[in-house]
Amino acid sequence: MFERMKEKKKEVRVVRRIVFIIALVLLIIIGIAGFQTYNYISNALEPVDPDSEEIITVEVPIGSSLDGIAALLEENGVITDARIYKYYVKFKNESEFQAGTYDLVQSMTLDEITESLKTGKVYHEPLYTINVPEGLTVEEIAENVIAKKTDYTAEEFLEKINDPAYIEELMIKFPDLLTDEILGENIRYALEGYLYPATYPVYEENPPLTVLIEQMLDTTQANVMQYQPILEEMEQSPHWLLTFSSLLEEEATAQSDRQTIASVFYNRLEIDMPLQTDPTVLYAMGEHKDRLFNTDYEFEHPYSTYKNKGLPPGPIANAGLSSIDAVLDPAETEYFYFLADKEGKNHFAKTYEQHLANRDKYIGN
């Protein structure tokens, strides 16, 4: 009996040791699993790649649910785990995501991604910005903006916007904005006047030229197509609007001048009188001059509004919103003439005699 008791105690100790070892192993496993789970969740809450600059285009269809959006983001590699993102969004009590096309990057935080999906805009710190001033031609944009801010040369930029196959692609992508008018026989550059003046964020060190060009066209479309109902009522096209606006952009120095100059041009167009605006001659000649001479006004070219009636074949520069607004909301005047004095101030006249008097008074011989 004594021996059996000793044997039983021994068995109990062995069982206890086994239980202890099993419990210890389970605790270790649980600890490792918990640590791994913690690490996984922590990583899933961080940007996929903090150093990434590659743009990933994600299309969120209309009516997408949170589950669908999260799955779409994971599928495109913008987030690590759809379930964790879904729980994160619910924890933050976010909702009302918008459908649309988003250019996202893996370095965006979950909050940045969420804010983008809520507002319809991409919220991400750009690497740098590109500023396109008002009143520039595509050649000036190529030389003074693209060549100075990116690794592309002016020639590479001009070659791209002169590529017939690429222009055809753009016309398919922007059918309401880019019509057959940009392919007119006398058009110098199809996209002249269509590269909107604005400051553009850049998220890649050296993005494709197509990204930069289409970013400008997107902005032009957003600003011009809002006036589509007015243009339809006037029986005019976006090309007409941008062409007319470009003349004001090159001639005017103030908003009030734009509206008054617009009235001068409208008055001249109404009686089939040539617009006779100097910037069209300079554009036709492809030169930069401080002053035009009588021989310059005789230069034969489709863009010269001294040699041709009506608007030129297309825009001569990129116009800002103030010039576009002035075309659609001109002043009501009886002016047919204007000139700028040495300080750049414009002086208007109803008759040619008054115009000559202004010339003698403000410019001289």
Strand order of the largest sheet: 1-2
**Mean of residue pLDDT values:** 87
Please summarize the sheet with the most strands: 2 strands, antiparallel
How large a portion of the residues is in β-strands, by DSSP E? 5-15%
Strand/helix succession: HEHHEHEHHHEHHHHHHHEEH
Q: For the terminal residues, how far apart are their CA atoms?
A: 137 Å
What characteristic shape results from the CA principal axes? elongated
SS class = mainly alpha
| Low-pLDDT sequence parts | none
Helix content: 40-55%
Count of discrete alpha- or pi-helical segments spanning 4 or more residues: 15
Question: Any chance you could write out the topology, listing elements then pairs?
Answer:
Elements: H1 2-44, E1 55-60, H2 66-75, H3 82-91, E2 100-105, H4 110-119, E3 128-131, H5 138-149, H6 154-161, H7 164-173, E4 199-202, H8 209-224, H9 228-234, H10 238-251, H11 255-270, H12 278-285, H13 294-297, H14 321-328, E5 337-340, E6 346-349, H15 352-362
Antiparallel strand pairs: 1-2, 3-4, 5-6
Helix pairs in contact: 2-3, 5-6, 10-11, 10-14, 11-14
Structure overview:
This protein is mainly alpha-helical. It folds into three domains: 72-125, no CATH class; 128-224, no CATH class; 226-362, no CATH class. The protein is built from 15 helices and six strands. A two-stranded antiparallel ribbon has the order 1-2. Strands 3-4 form a two-stranded antiparallel ribbon. Strands 5-6 form a two-stranded antiparallel ribbon. Helix 2 (66-75) crosses helix 3 and helix 10 crosses helix 11. The longest helix is centred in the N-terminal third of the chain and has 43 residues, at 2-44. It is elongated, with a radius of gyration of 33 Å. The protein starts with a helix and ends with a helix. The model has no long low-confidence stretch (mean pLDDT 87).
